[in-house]
């Protein structure tokens, strides 16, 4: 088999060829299907970008309407799913619940398990886009003890997200354009990021020909970790802690630099971006705008800015090319929109869904082989069995 090279964390190994997302870490460039992220965040909406990422081209007006209609057809979630949600304690983390519910969907949608032709592929995609949004918001309703809500076919996808989350039987939920636009932009900025940890997970699980829901459920679990999507929750908890401790950014920096202290500056650093994260740039600006438009004065934003300013001139961070990433400012916007901290990573998952779907589809269409890395064995050579009474 020849010599095996090991590359922990796959820092220098490519796992596939892909036409979906272009990322240049040195230059801070991110493009979906050739379109700059800055332009998409400014001019397109989330479903339009989802279509682009999944199918390869920007949709015509008619294609987009069709896509939205087809997603709507599948926004009802099987009633028995409610029994599964009932079984979770209210204190369960929404990401754990989301991963389980996504996996449970396979039981009710066998066709999504075995996609055999283009038509079934399209249905699986629309089903996933429809049902995942609804169950993602159900994790919040569960946490709050609220009755579960249903998709409103007269409203758009992102608007439905806010309704599904916040509308109560006691009265309709009023939202405004600023909130919907901000969420649209955030979802777009999260929509794909080539072979990151959760996407690689989706591809490797799917490479055994496991179905779309099963693969995405695994992706949700991978995203949950604080070094990946879970960082957005961790950033806000870190900022709150700094605020509680008197708001001293320098003290937090000192801890992050101390190699004996496991504390890391959450929302800083990236495996690929070594200059800046283009998503963070857009989100920082959006955070300023959204807070101003909503009239929110959040002292946490000032702490984040101080921390960023101090880190950007600190030799530790400069030498290691550590810059704010996508998770550094997103939580501040989510907080201003009234979304609880425990739900932040669920929002990341909703945004990343089209990317996971597109990568899974590409992997299946290209008939990629099963993912099966090798290893270099470092354990014992052959040993003789030791009887129980001699151990
Ligand atoms: N705070 C303090 N030191 C850091 C940080 C940080 N946030 N990030 C990296 N370093 C140091 C690290 O200790 C190492 O130092 P040394 O060379 O002295 O040993 C050096 O920088 C290189 O770091 P690494 O861990 O080898 O880099 P990596 O590519 O394996 O990890 C990362 C990338 C994103 C996991 C890491 O930067 C990190 O843990 N950041 C904090 C968590 C975070 O914000 N994650 C979100 C990433 S972006 C969105 C997403 O993927 O969801």
UniProtKB/TrEMBL annotation:
<keyword id="KW-0012">Acyltransferase</keyword>
<comment type="similarity">
    <text>Belongs to the citrate synthase family.</text>
</comment>
<keyword id="KW-0816">Tricarboxylic acid cycle</keyword>
<dbReference type="InterPro" id="IPR016142">
    <property type="entry name" value="Citrate_synth-like_lrg_a-sub"/>
</dbReference>
<dbReference type="InterPro" id="IPR010953">
    <property type="entry name" value="Citrate_synthase_typ-I"/>
</dbReference>
<dbReference type="InterPro" id="IPR002020">
    <property type="entry name" value="Citrate_synthase"/>
</dbReference>
<dbReference type="InterPro" id="IPR016143">
    <property type="entry name" value="Citrate_synth-like_sm_a-sub"/>
</dbReference>
<dbReference type="Pfam" id="PF00285">
    <property type="entry name" value="Citrate_synt"/>
</dbReference>
<dbReference type="InterPro" id="IPR036969">
    <property type="entry name" value="Citrate_synthase_sf"/>
</dbReference>
<protein>
    <recommendedName>
        <fullName>Citrate synthase</fullName>
    </recommendedName>
</protein>
<feature type="active site">
    <location>
        <position position="327"/>
    </location>
</feature>
<dbReference type="InterPro" id="IPR024176">
    <property type="entry name" value="Citrate_synthase_bac-typ"/>
</dbReference>
<feature type="active site">
    <location>
        <position position="270"/>
    </location>
</feature>
<dbReference type="GO" id="GO:0006099">
    <property type="term" value="P:tricarboxylic acid cycle"/>
</dbReference>
<comment type="pathway">
    <text>Carbohydrate metabolism; tricarboxylic acid cycle; isocitrate from oxaloacetate: step 1/2.</text>
</comment>
<dbReference type="InterPro" id="IPR019810">
    <property type="entry name" value="Citrate_synthase_AS"/>
</dbReference>
<dbReference type="GO" id="GO:0005737">
    <property type="term" value="C:cytoplasm"/>
</dbReference>
<dbReference type="GO" id="GO:0036440">
    <property type="term" value="F:citrate synthase activity"/>
</dbReference>
<keyword id="KW-0808">Transferase</keyword>
